[in-house]
């Protein structure tokens, strides 16, 4: 009996507080009965968006919150109804209904009508937007939202492809830096070794890591390449010498058309698609600057880099970087590949070169 009296008192105290807060916006729907028989709460509150600190704003969204309580409320969850909603779609009202049900579960055991009303007002504030004047306007707005979503998806895809290209270029830059570091170490070592026999040239790390050309190689034919970055040279590119083990660089025989000098021509191909071409150009230019440092490095025991050229092939979405380097004409390429730490020297140039 004490528990029932407590529930009745709590409900009556709650209705008095709600009347003081909402005034005429609250309607008590309980029927008047004889003998002052007590009935559980059944109220409806007309709600508008919660007003911010900047004052009253135009009201576009409203709803009536109808709460029907049992005799065990607040120990039972009341029935929650949303009626006469304006300025919101059915899907939006369904979303509010779900949120109110969840809030009621969280507040079980406590009086909750005021909290549910506050939650509703906050929801109305977030969705207080002018409605569409016509079906055509609504269609245009929905189409605009879909276009924006598609644009964002394309931007994400471009960013992903740009990142892939950036990672590939960074990887190749690291390879170049490693080779530069190795050359510097060899240079310092040669300078400190006073008893070094002769002035034999050492092959570069990249040359020692070439895969031997076989019949499966598809690089055939000749091509004239004009290098102009460090003096103008026209190079007749010949057959393929070999490839780096990771397949990132292809080396060819090269012949200076004017002087007849032999060179090795390295070719890097960077493929890209739907990427920021300006970003790719910046990265390739950075690689070209790194190569310029190697071009300035000269020593009798090192293979010398001579020139570098970059070419953008827009039709196939790729960048070709050609590297012209000194050809070690007195070293058998097979000896380099089979015995990378031992160089075999000959008196004459092999006929195959």
Write the topology of this structure.
Layout: H1 2-22, E1 26-28, E2 42-47, E3 62-68, E4 79-86, H2 90-106, H3 113-126, H4 135-192, H5 205-208, E5 210-212, E6 223-227, E7 233-244, E8 249-256, E9 262-271, H6 277-296, E10 305-313, E11 318-326, H7 333-338
Antiparallel strand pairs: 1-2, 2-3, 3-4, 5-7, 6-7, 7-8, 8-9, 9-11, 10-11
Helix pairs in contact: 2-3, 4-6
The share of residues in extended strands comes to 15-25%
Number of helices: 7
Structural class: alpha+beta
CATH superfamily of the domain at 7-127: Ubiquitin Conjugating Enzyme
In CATH, the architecture of the domain at 7-127 is Roll
Question: How much helix is in the residues?
Answer: 25-40%
CATH topology of the domain at 7-127: Ubiquitin Conjugating Enzyme
**Main sheet makeup:** 7 strands, antiparallel
Distance between the termini: 110 Å
Order of helices and strands: HEEEEHHHHEEEEEHEEH
Rg is 40 Å
Structure description:
The protein has 353 residues and is an alpha+beta fold. Among the domains are: 7-127, Ubiquitin Conjugating Enzyme; 223-328, 2-Layer Sandwich (Phosphorylase Kinase, domain 1), CATH 3.30.200.20. The protein is built from 7 helices and 11 strands. The chain has helices spanning 2-22, 90-106, 113-126, 135-192, 205-208, 277-296, 333-338, and strands spanning 26-28, 42-47, 62-68, 79-86, 210-212, 223-227, 233-244, 249-256, 262-271, 305-313, 318-326. Strands 5, 6, 7, 8, 9, 10 and 11 form a 7-stranded antiparallel beta sheet that branches. It has a 4-stranded antiparallel beta sheet with strand order 1-2-3-4, with helices on one face. Helix 2 (90-106) packs antiparallel against helix 3 and helix 4 (135-192) runs parallel beside helix 6. The chain is rod-shaped, with a radius of gyration of 40 Å. This is RWD domain-containing protein. Residues 133-162 form a coiled coil. InterPro entries: GIR2-like, RWD_dom, UBQ-conjugating_enzyme/RWD.
